[in-house]
Amino acid sequence: MTMAKDYYEILGVSKTASAEELKKAYRKLAIQYHPDRNPGNKEAEDKFKELAQAYEVLSNPEKRARYDQFGPDAFNGAAGGGFGGGGFSAEDIFSQVFGGGGGRGGSIFEEFFGGGSSRRRSPSGARDGNDLRYDLEIDFIDAVFGVDKEIRIAKMNTCDTCKGSGAEPGSSKTTCTQCQGRGQVVMQQGFFSVAQECPRCHGTGQIIQKPCKKCYGNGQVKIEKTLKVHIPPGVDTNSRLRVSGEGEGGVRGGSSGDLYVVLHVREHNLFKRQGNDISCDVPIPFATAALGGTVDVPTVTGKATLRLKAGTQNNTVLRLQGKGMPSIRGGGRGDMYVKIITEVPVSLTSAQRTLLEKFAENLSAQNNPKQREFRNAAAQFLRDE
After folding, report:
1. Which runs of consecutive H residues, i.e. helices, occur in 101-148?
2. Residue 109 domain-assigned?
């Protein structure tokens, strides 16, 4: 004989759980095991029914009291389908908890699993236009100073003849006979009765007698349009600019969508960006590093002159304050970091080689303290081996 499962264990709550705790537990598990989310999974379907049965009993104070006293046997023989009496189905319980059809004209699950349209559709059939995306490449320097760019887009726009209604101006409409003017029809999907957009009138509740000649009853026409987009200083790759109302046009009174311009900044051959800071590698001659001197450095705002002290080491980083990118939110600029790269000659004349050899002969440990430190540490390490 199979032992009946404990309803509290099914919902994962204690025997002292409040009504709100019961509801919260049921909502979470019902979404997880719903048949629409687990198509073809008999185990999930059975679990979904089991959850509904447990919640239907424990959410009712009288039935819960009987269950606490007698267990599942309290309802044997009295309940249609094992749901504690009253003839409720798993669909009924789920609909009660989640508030019916969700208020959007689709299934309850559109509210939780994203089944609905991303744009608003009203019971009258009004539909907002879709948002659009345009990817735009710009130069690094344009990202520094900002720029105005012209772009050309193709999109579906609200028909200017019928104003998006789809009907020829002056023509009449009749009530849709399939949905009786409601704009929705009820379809049976497994356990659920689901309200969906009427396929005949497309949610308007009315049938156009004479379609608009320009848009053929669609309410939209395809157009191409040139727009000027202002790109502010300080933008970066994946910065997104919103151009309000320049997406696709709405239908039957719906609002136009928006256009989102996504920027892609081309790499520069001199500068690299790190947040609002800019870095630049500057090669200098070996002699300048040893003797010191000045070096001209390009910045986004013009030339800057750096004074190097004698003995400047390779990979030394110097900061030029305020020479970086402007903040897109305002309030100053980043800095520029110059990395000194000491360039060793790759080819020497005979005379240069002779001079360099004489130079090397005159070097002492005091001239290269890091070499001396390294040699001492290496010798100590090898002795310890």
Report:
1. 110-113, 140-145
2. no
The SS3 assignment for 104 reads: coil
Residue 346: which domain range? 272-378
Q: 110 φ, ψ to 5°? A: -60, -30
| Cβ atoms 138, 231 nearer than 8 A | yes
Question: What value does the CA radius of gyration of the chain take, rounded to a whole number of Å?
Answer: 37
Is position 197 within any domain? no
Q: 155 and 30: one domain?
A: no
Give whole-number Cα distances, 101 to 39, 56, 86, 183, in Å: 20, 19, 22, 14
> Is residue 125 assigned to a domain?
no
DSSP state of 204: S
Quickly count: other Cβ atoms within 10 Å of residue 316's Cβ.
Answer: 16
Q: Taking Cα atoms as reference points, which of 325, 134, 336 lies closest to residue 232?
A: 325
pLDDT digits (tens, 9 = 90+) for 36-46: 777 788 898 88
CATH number for the domain that contains residue 325: 2.60.260.20
Start-end of H helices in 202-342: 286-291
Q: Give the number of other CB atoms < 10 A from CB of residue 175.
A: 12
Domain check: are 49 and 78 in the same one? yes
Which portions of the chain are predicted below pLDDT 70? 1-4, 72-92, 95-125, 188-193, 385
Per DSSP, helices labelled H in 140-285 are 140-145
Strand order in the sheet with 317-320: 272-274, 277-285, 336-343, 317-320
Q: What are phi and psi of 74, to 5 degrees?
A: -60, -20
- Interior angle at CA 126, CA 113 and CA 128, nearest 5: 65
Single-letter residue type at 266: R
**Does the predicted TM-score (pTM) go above 0.85?**
no
**Among 124, 126, 125, 90, residue whose Cα is nearest residue 108:** 90
Residue by residue, DSSP assigns 215-247 as TTTSSEEEEEEEEEEEE-TT--TT-EEEETT-S
Separation CA 218–CA 1 (nearest Å): 63
Shortest CA distance to 94 belongs to which of 104, 83, 85?
83
The amino acid present at 315, given as its one-letter code, is N
Find the Cα–Cα–Cα–Cα dihedral 358, 364, 366, 369, rounded to 10°. 90
Cα–Cα distance between 137 and 231 in angstroms, integer? 11
> Both 261 and 136 in a single domain?
yes
